[in-house]
Structure formats: structure tokens, C-alpha cells
Amino acid sequence: MSEELMDTCILMDADKFTVQSSKNSVEDNLFDEIIGYIEDILLEDEFHAIQKRFLDDYWDVFEPVEENKLIYTDIFNEYNKAVESYIVNYLQRAVPHFNISTFLEHLNNKRNELEGEVFEVLSTITDFVAFKEMFLDYRDVKEGRVQDLSFGISVTSLKSCNTSDDNSPR
């Protein structure tokens, strides 16, 4: 079957045919694939190390007041550069012809319908308020106002699980 035919959908309605392109579904599938890779990135120790380094270095700079300091912008830009570079390098290896500008455009267009940890992390790159909130939450943990529940959580990538071990307890 040709690619043209695969990208076309024929809808039949009583007396007429309607031909529609399914290009949007191709774009949606690519977007979903990229989100899947980003989910993998979020499980990597190297990504956590980048994020933790920023939090540990700057948590005490951010204050829970409405007025923002000029230094916040410098930290935000530095964080964006480090995290975006890591994510883009990973995605360029995983997805042929990956384009960050196109991806961010799709992300922005879908902003109202997206939720979950992946989108929270991505919002810290594109949304200063979410970025500042991440630091304020970390500050609350560091100062003991909120209990750190991360010590009891262990997240493991499915890629590292060995499912062929027949001697495992059932």
C-alpha cells in the first residue's frame, strides 16, 4: 500500500464520498512517540542529577514572594539550556529528523489537554512560574515545612527489567 493511500481516509456518507488526509494523526503519533522518549529520559539518573544539581545550588535563592529577583532569570536560562540540551541530544539520537521548534509548537498547541509528570517537567523549561514553583517546593522540603516523600519511592525503567528469568518467584 502506498504512503499516499495510507495517509488518506475515505469517509462515506449516504450519497457522497469525503476524502480527508490523516496527516494530523501522523503528527499526533510522532508527538506521542517523542513524549514516550521523554518519559524514558525522566527515569534516567543523569537527568535527575542535572535537575538535582540546580535545586541544590539555588533552592535558597528563591523566596515565596510575588516580586521576582533578577537572578531568577539567569538561573531559569541556565536551567533551560542544560535541560533542553540534554533532552534535545537524547531525542536527536532516538528520533530521526527531530526538531525542537516543531515539538515545542505542538506542545504549546496541546497545552490545555496535557497533564502528568512529563508535562510538569516540560513546563519548568517553558514556564517561569512552574520553574519558580519547583524551587519553592524544594525549599519547603529543605526547610522541613513539607516532608520529603521521595526517599521511599523507587522508579525503574522497564527497559532494565529482565523478563526472561524463569526462576523468579511468582
How is the topology of this model organized?
Blueprint: H1 3-6, E1 8-13, E2 16-21, H2 23-42, H3 45-58, H4 70-94, H5 100-109, H6 117-126, H7 128-142
Antiparallel strand pairs: 1-2
Helix pairs in contact: 2-4, 3-4, 6-7
Question: How does this model look, in words?
Answer:
Helices cover 58% and strands 7% of the residues. The chain has 170 residues and is mostly helical. It has a two-stranded antiparallel sheet. Helix 2 packs across helix 4, helix 3 runs antiparallel to helix 4 and helix 6 crosses helix 7. The chain is elongated and about 45 Å long. The N terminus is likely disordered.
What are the salient characteristics of this protein?
7 helices; two-stranded antiparallel sheet; elongated; 170 residues
